[in-house]
Amino acid sequence: MEKIKILIIDDSALIRKMLTEIFNSSGELEVVGTAADPYVARTKIKQLNPDVLTLDVEMPRMDGLTFLRNLMRLRPMPVVMISTLTEKGAEVTLNALQLGAVDFVSKPKIDVANSLQDYAEEIIAKVKAAAKAHVRTLTPAPKRQVSAALHSGRHSVDAVLRPSAGKKHFATTDKLIVFGSSTGGTEALKNVVANLPADTPPIVVTQHLPAAFSASFAKHVDEASAMNACLAVDGQQILPGNIYIAPGDRHLLVTRDGARYICRLNDGLPVNRHKPSVDVLFRSAAQNVGSNAIGVMLTGMGTDGAVAMKEMSDAGSINIVQDEASSVVWGMPGEAYRLGAAHHVLALDKIAEQLLTLL
């Protein structure tokens, strides 16, 4: 089997050297070249025809975003951003995902030489997924005229929330929508909520992101939607017209206080190597919302959320998964489909319409 060819674009010679060692050690990846800036990279892309680029955000002569914008216009290809875990780095990285980057890896701010090796497994996995990704420049769908992280550890959802004994009977008929997503999900979620009215029933979201990115992501979603988006707060009441997003270092659960839905944050173990985990959110919806829930699984690498989405289906919820053709990576939605958890398999631009129909 041919190895995946990688071109590393980074102005730091140390980062280029370390990434080369990490990729070449995997057995499935091969660094065919490196570039200190986008001008050199442009020539090497033509010469070497790589399968995946890794791209730094801040570089001399041309910044990563400008290069990415030109690349996606002239020669779309899989790109994994290398960004710093800072507020500025988060904002730039989310903009890069909007321009068409497949995913990102957070670069440590200090002690890079020793810390970057700790990210090796994550970096390799993300580059391998990027090589298979459906690359496109995602542009937000026009708004309809309507009324109104990766962590170590391989624990299952049982480590945070135990399975329930059986079905519950619910006093309220209020609807609630839960979303799960990962790779490609930041743009996919914005695409869906941009087409929902301000009075839509509440939406609760788990998107795999580092904590430093959470506030910027919530702001991007808020700007894209007629609904109000925010980071979830422990004990916060869940109300219509609002989108509640899991912080990047806590699991988000939906619980009940009588007929009211409540956000609960949990600092437990990572589940499926993620914190927050989609499985945790979806199991809480199965246990506390049941047939009043609608589950939506968007693009994402891995399998997180699939098992609990089946539990939601068994509890009476209706579930939607994004189809393979419109997903950047059909990992999480594909696994939910294979487990029989999906009632609707839809292209991204059809999901909002189906949600409104179900509501």
UniProtKB/TrEMBL annotation:
Protein name, per record: Protein-glutamate methylesterase/protein-glutamine glutaminase
PANTHER family assigned: PROTEIN-GLUTAMATE METHYLESTERASE/PROTEIN-GLUTAMINE GLUTAMINASE, PROTEIN-GLUTAMATE METHYLESTERASE_PROTEIN-GLUTAMINE GLUTAMINASE
GO BP annotations listed: chemotaxis
Written domain comment of the UniProt record: Contains a C-terminal catalytic domain, and an N-terminal region which modulates catalytic activity.
Function: Involved in chemotaxis. Part of a chemotaxis signal transduction system that modulates chemotaxis in response to various stimuli. Catalyzes the demethylation of specific methylglutamate residues introduced into the chemoreceptors (methyl-accepting chemotaxis proteins or MCP) by CheR. Also mediates the irreversible deamidation of specific glutamine residues to glutamic acid.
Coiled coil regions in record: none
Domain Response regulatory: 5-122
Domain of life assignment: Bacteria
Location of the protein in the cell: Cytoplasm
Keyword presence, Signal: no
Ranges of residues in domain CheB-type methylesterase: 170-359
This protein's UniProt keywords: Chemotaxis, Cytoplasm, Hydrolase, Phosphoprotein
Annotated GO CC locations: cytoplasm
PROSITE patterns, A to Z: CHEB, RESPONSE_REGULATORY
Modification note: Phosphorylated by CheA. Phosphorylation of the N-terminal regulatory domain activates the methylesterase activity.
4-aspartylphosphate: residues bearing it: D56
Catalytic reaction(s) noted: L-glutaminyl-[protein] + H2O = L-glutamyl-[protein] + NH4(+); [protein]-L-glutamate 5-O-methyl ester + H2O = L-glutamyl-[protein] + methanol + H(+)
UniProt entry tagged with the keyword Hydrolase: yes
GO molecular function: phosphorelay response regulator activity; protein-glutamate methylesterase activity; protein-glutamine glutaminase activity
Family: Belongs to the CheB family.
Catalytic residues of the enzyme: S182, H208, D304
InterPro entries found in the cross-reference section: CheB-like, CheB_C, CheY-like_superfamily, Sig_transdc_resp-reg_Me-estase, Sig_transdc_resp-reg_receiver
